[in-house]
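Example record for the data management plan.
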Amino acid sequence: MPDEQSIVFVIDDDEAVRDALSVHLDLAGLPVRTFASASDFLAAIDPDQGGCAVLDIRMPDQDGIALQQEMIRRGLTLPVIIITGHGDVEAAVAAFRSGAVDFLQKPFDEDLLIERIREAIERDRHSRRLSLEVAEIRVRFDQLSPREKEVMDLVAQGHSNKVIAIRLDIGVRTVETHRAKVLEKMGVRSAPELARMKMRLDEGGHG
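Corresponding structural encoding:
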């Protein structure tokens, strides 16, 4: 089950669809908020809120694809599931290219939608956990001096103190001192742990 912070946002201009999905999601134990338009959703969403968004592809003020792209522009990372009664291959391709996790045509199997929503929520939770981990590592990394960052990079690559000393044109004992400081500041005890941290930073676009 998702945690209490995971909310399913249903954005559809059809009141009957919103009501039906709200009831079905509630029965499935999934917290849900519904919106009749893209603008209402964008005005209410907290950028830090976890969960997923279920978007209708055709709405009066802004269609689901445009809303999806606007979410990306605003840095909203909620996984998106597109639903529509007018779906076609071109729309499906556009949705997936913009990062939608699924595309379902009305009438759809509600149990299948619930399954896809649970998968999307789990994906979102995993992504947010990784982002938090990277942010915590980055705070430690930023405390390193420029030289310590160089040493960390080389240690993470598996180089010995002697090789690092040659590469940086410093003494082996100086490397040992820097290495000890790096491990202490990064909160790890070994080079493999340091390498995993460096990999997380690189995956997050920093390092």
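Summary line stored alongside the record: The chain has two domains: 6-127, 142-203.
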